[in-house]
């Protein structure tokens, strides 16, 4: 029996009660228990799994708009390929067995030249709703809003300029029209099945005068930025064409990078284009002295379709400057035609650092560094040029450039003869989802051809020609060896006529870059124009999406 307090003995629960009554002791027990639970959870946790890297995605387009900048006196061609580009997955598209070939297109149906071969009369067919449709309309304040068109696709009678020229509703059918002089820019807009792959181009042919030769341009998409690089205002008459084909106002800034550096001025800042408005701006009014230059058209608000044309003077040729790929540290300028004449490279470094650009040519024989042309020094914010005429040696080629800072690049090529013509190509992206060229021609003295380059792994493409009239021939498949350039002669059934061409990389193909060359033999000199292959308008890139608490937490 326990003794009382007077006898010195303690009760049996005295120690426990003292510990419980001690607040610090109880807290220590809680911390020990939590530590034990954490230890068990740490030991038994599942192995860490690396999160997949976020990559950009692509979504199919539902509508496409292209603007032909100055179609007066030219032929406008438009086409939506059947099934987009016969498989819009690019290198993921299905394909047959391989093979190589130097000529694309064969059969017995003849294509013919002429105006408006779509079979439409300006009204939609019964299948408009199911197949979608594309409208061809002069850009004006009355037609920038598609809701302003009536059920047949025509503008109201009181619209003045801007009436709808045609409604297209047949994928795979090439539509063409010779446009009268002094016409306004044409907007070609496709929706539904007529949107995927919709392509348009304008091509003029002039036999004498200051505009003698062939001049072709891909009709431009409205966007927030566009780059052009080539001769400057002191060596060419460069005209910039700006069109606002949207229903919202556009505010534009024009930046010029000359050989001496950025051209500073207020004339190109804050230009306002109202809905349906278009302007032609002579660059000598903004920058009269550059021998070489790059021009960036940047919108502060809204969108604008931008194109540029350069004329070297009577007897020296005129052509459009193709839109160049955005500044990057690695640039490929494809589609440089073979033959005689000048080949001049233009490179711009629009940033704040000087750079030394490494220059390589890629021909049918492979890569090589051209003697005394291996590098090009480009000061910050300026444009430099390099004569490649003897370096390329008259071969079809691409130029592969690398630098430590982002650059923009293009090439000028001239034809041969007592009167020369001129053509331009520019840095372009790989055609991983395919490419469409709307206007190609074949005849006794006229020819079109593709120049495809595979700077890395070997490439493989399917080439489909779509004549203006008659059945399309079976597509052909072409192999491009690794680190090589290959020229592909295009043909149509019957050997003459106008046609479009669809180029689609096949599964397993490496990155491919290309251009289309169109020329015509003339007694006083070669007519010449080129167009770098652009990505088909079948899908749009979307930025990568990752889960993050920063959206809701500061």
UniProtKB/TrEMBL annotation:
The keyword Zinc does not apply. Keywords: Membrane, Transmembrane, Transmembrane helix. It comes from the Bacteria. Residues 84-105 have a biased composition (Gly residues). Residues 106-120 have a biased composition (Low complexity). Residues 70-163 are annotated as: Disordered. InterPro entries: DUF5719 (IPR043777). The keyword Transmembrane helix applies. The chain crosses the membrane at residues 24-43. This is Secreted protein. It comes from Sphaerisporangium album.
């Amino acid at each position: 029996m326990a003794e009382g307090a007077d006898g010195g003995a303690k009760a049996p629960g005295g120690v426990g009660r003292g510990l419980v009554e001690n607040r610090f002791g109880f807290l220590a027990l809680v911390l020990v228990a939590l530590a034990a639970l954490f230890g068990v959870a740490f030991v038994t946790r599942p192995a860490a799994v690396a999160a997949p890297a976020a990559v950009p995605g692509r979504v199919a387009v539902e509508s496409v708009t292209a603007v032909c900048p100055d179609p007066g006196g030219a032929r406008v061609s438009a086409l939506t390929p059947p099934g987009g580009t016969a498989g819009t997955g690019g290198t993921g598209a299905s394909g047959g067995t391989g093979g190589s070939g130097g000529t694309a297109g064969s059969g017995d149906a003849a294509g013919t030249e002429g105006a408006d071969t779509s079979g439409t009369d300006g009204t939609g067919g019964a299948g408009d709703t199911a197949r979608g449709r594309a409208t061809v309309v002069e850009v004006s304040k009355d037609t920038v809003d598609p809701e302003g068109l009536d059920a047949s696709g025509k503008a109201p009678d009181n619209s003045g300029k801007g009436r709808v020229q045609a409604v297209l509703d047949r994928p795979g059918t090439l539509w063409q029209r010779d446009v009268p002089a002094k016409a306004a820019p044409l907007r070609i807009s496709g929706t539904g099945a007529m949107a995927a792959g919709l392509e348009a181009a304008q091509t003029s042919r002039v036999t004498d005068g200051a505009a003698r030769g062939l001049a072709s341009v891909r009709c431009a998409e409205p966007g927030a930025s566009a780059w052009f690089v080539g001769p400057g205002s002191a060596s060419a008459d460069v005209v910039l064409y700006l069109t606002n084909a949207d229903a919202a106002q556009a505010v534009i800034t024009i930046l010029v990078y000359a050989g001496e550096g950025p051209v500073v001025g207020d004339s190109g800042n804050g230009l306002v284009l109202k809905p349906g408005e278009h302007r032609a701006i002579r660059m000598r009014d903004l920058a009269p002295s550059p021998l070489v230059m790059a021009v960036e058209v940047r919108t502060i608000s809204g969108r604008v379709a931008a194109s540029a044309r350069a004329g070297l003077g009577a007897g020296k040729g005129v052509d459009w400057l193709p839109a160049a790929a955005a500044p990057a540290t690695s640039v490929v300028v494809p589609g440089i035609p073979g033959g005689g004449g000048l080949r001049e490279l233009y490179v711009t470094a629009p940033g704040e650092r000087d750079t030394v650009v490494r220059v390589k040519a890629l021909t049918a024989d492979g890569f090589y560094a051209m003697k005394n042309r291996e590098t090009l020094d480009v000061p910050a914010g300026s444009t430099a040029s390099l004569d490649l005429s003897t370096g390329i040696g008259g071969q079809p080629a691409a130029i592969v450039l690398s630098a430590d800072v982002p650059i923009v690049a293009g090439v000028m090529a001239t034809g041969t003869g007592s009167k020369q013509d001129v053509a331009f190509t520019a840095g372009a992206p790989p055609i991983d989802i395919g490419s469409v060229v709307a206007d190609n021609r074949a005849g006794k003295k006229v020819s079109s051809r593709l120049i495809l380059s595979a700077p890395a792994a070997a490439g493989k493409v399917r080439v489909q020609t779509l004549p203006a009239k008659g059945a399309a021939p079976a597509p052909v498949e072409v192999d491009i060896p690794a680190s090589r350039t290959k020229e592909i002669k295009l043909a149509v059934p019957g050997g003459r006529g106008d046609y479009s061409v669809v180029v689609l990389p096949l599964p397993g193909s490496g990155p491919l870059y290309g251009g289309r060359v169109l020329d015509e033999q003339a007694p006083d000199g070669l007519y010449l124009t080129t167009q770098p292959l652009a990505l088909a308008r079948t899908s749009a890139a979307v930025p990568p999406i990752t889960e993050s608490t920063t959206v809701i937490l500061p």
